[in-house]
Amino acid sequence: MLKRYIDEIGKDLVLDDFNLKEAQLRLPARKHYWVARLIEAKIERNKLISKKKALKKKVIKQVIQESPVRINVTAAEIAAENHESLKELNTAIEEQDVIIEYLEKVERIMNSMGYEIKNIVDIQKMEQL
């Protein structure tokens, strides 16, 4: 998904003399698009965290029940963290964190695009004088 986002933002950030007005007119919609992707990524991260908590409880119960000796909850939690499904969820959460970080930076870039377009227009005006 990150690769797709990188490709998309690359297209949004291309400015030249021919597409300047189009880019300026599309800017609010593109800002909305990227903020929506950021919110979706945060929602997905929260879902993964909730899923991890539920799965961890289940695995802890399973570890306690299957243990040949009586173990406390802390030891069961440590054993649960090494469970393959929890490792996969941790990896997914870490990947989602990277996507969120990237989208937050994209949001900052999109917010500065208005100034960049204004500067380009000012340069064009000075060239015409």
Outline the structure in words.
The protein has 129 residues and is mostly helical. The protein has one domain (2-128). Helices cover 87% and strands 0% of the residues. The chain contains 4 helices and no strands. The protein has helices at 2-12, 20-66, 73-81, 84-128. Helix 2 crosses helix 3. The radius of gyration is 24 Å and the shape is rod-shaped. The two termini are 46 Å apart. The model has no long low-confidence stretch (mean pLDDT 89).
In short:
With 129 residues, the protein is mainly α. The protein has four helices and no strands. The chain is 87% helix and 0% strand.
- Put simply, the count of helices is 4
Q: How would a crystallographer describe the biggest sheet?
A: none
- Helix-strand makeup class: mainly alpha
**Order of helical and strand elements:** HHHH
Spell out the blueprint of helices and strands.
Blueprint: H1 2-12, H2 20-66, H3 73-81, H4 84-128
Helix pairs in contact: 2-3, 2-4
Q: What characteristics describe this protein?
A:
single chain, 129 residues, mainly alpha, rod-shaped
